[in-house]
Amino acid sequence: MDSLPIIDISPLYRRDESAWRAVAGRIDRACREWGFFYIEGHPIGAERIAALSDLARRFFALPLAEKRRIDIAGSGHHRGYGALAAEQLDPAQPGDCKETFDMGFHLPADHPEVLAGKPLRGPNRHPALEGWETLLESHYRDMHELSCTVLRAIALALGIERDFFDRRFRQPASVLRLIHYPPQQGAERPGAGEHTDYGCITLLHQDRVGGLQVRARRGQWIDAPPRDGTFVVNIGDMMARWSNDRYRSTAHRVISPREQDRYAMPFFAEPHPETAIACLPGCQDAERPPHYPPTTCAEWLLSRFAATYAHRRGDVAG
Ligand SMILES: O=C(O)CCC(=O)C(=O)O
Ligand SMILES: [Fe+2]
Fold first, then answer.
1. Ligand 1 site-directed mutation target among 179, 232, 250, 308, most atoms within 8 Å of CB
2. Which reaction does it catalyse (predicted)?
3. Whole-model pTM?
4. What ipTM does this complex have?
């Protein structure tokens, strides 16, 4: 079968234990076989997506100087606007042909964690577009809830306490990102070079243009085409580390669109920065010793940012 599974998660919003287990079973299989699947039956409506798409178009259409007022390169805690080619996901390729906006869990500048200089902590940096901040902050909260719902099913599938992730995802390091891929005539620059995601799970909304491709287990690239009303969910490196590769982070890439602009909105679900990421109890035994040394969420993320962002080279995890 060369197409990604589509899983209806609506039973996760009801109190039927056996239906819950059935969904968890499907997710478990998709995570083992693909590391990628679509979800439908989630509560994020088409009006919300339309309103976000409208704002994304307006933001990316602003003059560069205006967007650069919140340039991510000037942010110690990784928030704001990332210009074209600021990120190079595949080191063997030129910089990605995309521009981005990143936001996270907002902590005010006078919050003790921010004053203490904790990594990845601080205020969001929003553009001055009417309606932007309210909508984006609500969407961040709703995506956080959705990620926790999916993670509860994953906890069930992995045989750990149902609230294992809920307890670790308070004040999360999760990032909501808006991406604009401008059209390109030649194929010389990738939209997003081949990579795995760094976090736990990613929930991606893509528009109708297409171009996302996933590397299947046998090595071939398959399309992950747009499907209305769905999110594409994929396993990131932290979940691979937690599950000792029971769930593997799967490589993917985005081919630059040819004639039209493409917009996508990934939500990278990541726990509290200080969360320990070490092999889960049920994921190791004498035959499967832990593959990865323990780390923390912030340490791992900072090491990955340093490898992919020009302005962060030499920035070491602390
Ligand atoms: O734009 C997409 O469809 C995927 C983007 C992506 O893989 C990423 O930002 O990590
Ligand atoms: Fe990705």
1. 179
2. L-arginine + 2-oxoglutarate + O2 = guanidine + L-glutamate 5-semialdehyde + succinate + CO2; 2-oxoglutarate + O2 + 2 H(+) = ethene + 3 CO2 + H2O
3. 0.95
4. 0.99
